[in-house]
Amino acid sequence: MHSIRPVFWNGDSLQLLDQRLLPEKEEYLACKSVNDVTQAIRQMVVRGAPAIGVSAAFGMVLAAKTAVDRLLKENKEDHASKSSFSEMYTDLKEASALLKNSRPTAVNLFWAVEKILQKALKLENETLQNIVDGLEQEAEAMLREDIVTNKRIGDFGAELLPKKGTVLTHCNAGALATGGYGTALGVIRSAVARGKSIHVLVDETRPLFQGSRLTAWELRKDNIPVTIIVDSAAGHFLQGGYIQCVVVGADRVAANGDVANKIGTYALAVLCKENNIPFYVAAPISTFDFAMQTGSGIEVEERAAEEITSWKQTPIAPVGVAARNPAFDITPAYLVSALITERGLIFSPDADKLGNLPREGKMAD
Ligand code: MRU
User: Fold this and answer.
1) Ligand 1 pocket: which of 205, 214, 262 to mutate (most atoms <8 Å of CB)?
2) In whole angstroms, what is the distance from residue 310 CA to residue 207 CA?
3) Could you tell me if the CB of 45 is within 6 A of ligand 1?
4) What residue numbers bound the domain in which 136 lies?
């Protein structure tokens, strides 16, 4: 299996495989400051909920490094005296606000930034350099654990896929959207690794074509058969009996099981219900927002109209025409056949079932 590295840390900078350029070019962009990381998330150099989370964690590490350089230059002692720690922590809080402002829907970003802030507080009595080292180790662990988590999601989800058949997915919930391996595509990868014969149908996913540019690119690298369709063809194929199930990722799962995911996901779920086809959502626990009672409270990012009215700076609509561009929609829990997590499968999710899930701690053995 080809290994795709969307995000890696080289000790000084965060290296991001620039997803705006795929599939034509495989180029990494170096982020050397929290501002660079914020811009990269906003402009979707890196995208997908877990990948955004991990990137934000490294953004916080870069902010910590900058803060320590500044404090040392100003001759503050290299010891976490209460005052130098609190100055550094103030800088970290500012960095966290910047990052949290980049994209509002994927909860992994907020989760990752908070985890780094918590870690900094735990290291309060260490030297400034030890704090930076500790944060760097925390971010690296988050990246490693994300891949392990995806593989566990894959293990649980593979059981749900047919021995031989066609699976529809939307957007890109693959290696590119995570630390590596993928959630929805991880389920497909694991099923194929177990000898199942899966053909993937992927929506091209307007307006930024994450399906045709990214998912098709990933699956081709792994030699998994893939066919792209326009988003509006999904109903035709679901109705015609060509598809055995749909598997997608998530940007946020509310406490009652409602799911925020790429725009078009809700329509797919309704089409699945209408045609009696299982609709699965694969997501790590870091994508669950237990403080959000229902999906109606989730902020749906609205992106620039130009993403719809032009492509690579060439107009594809009358100049000046109005366009609305919500990047996500909310699928109610009752349309979800099962949530696939690293802790197991949750069939017909609801608030009670999610309430019984452990929030943090060790993954299921
Ligand atoms: O706007 P994007 O490309 O960041 O949207 C990504 C999705 O909607 C994914 O399905 C989701 O983040 C899950 S990624 C494992």
Assistant:
1) 262
2) 9
3) no
4) 7-150
Judge if 326 and 178 occupy the same domain: yes
Domain identity same for 19 and 128: yes
Active site residue 251: yes
Tokens of 70: 């500044």
**Cα–Cα distance measured from residue 115 to residue 311, given in angstroms and rounded to the nearest whole number:** 37
136: its two tokens = 């760097």
Domain total for the chain? 2
Which run of H or E residues covers position 235?
A: helix 234-239
Pocket test for ligand 1, best of 172, 203, 208, 248 (most atoms within 8 A of CB): 172
> 150, 177, 195: which is the final residue of a domain?
150
Q: Which of 18, 91, 203, 251 is catalytic?
A: 251
150 lines ligand 1 (CB under 6 A): no
50 neighbors 286 (Cβ within 8 angstroms): yes
| pLDDT, tens digit (0-9, with 9 covering 90-100), for 140-197 | 999 999 999 999 999 999 999 999 999 999 999 999 999 999 999 999 999 999 999 9
Ligand 1 midpoint to CA 162 (Å): 24
CATH number of the domain enclosing 349: 3.40.50.10470
Q: Where among 91, 123, 150 does a domain terminate?
A: 150
Rounded CA separation 157/20 (Å): 29
Distance (Å) from CA 68 to ligand 1 centroid: 34
pLDDT, tens digit (0-9, with 9 covering 90-100), for 87-143? 999 999 999 999 999 999 999 999 999 999 999 999 999 999 999 999 999 999 999
Shared domain for 101 and 172, answered yes or no, is no
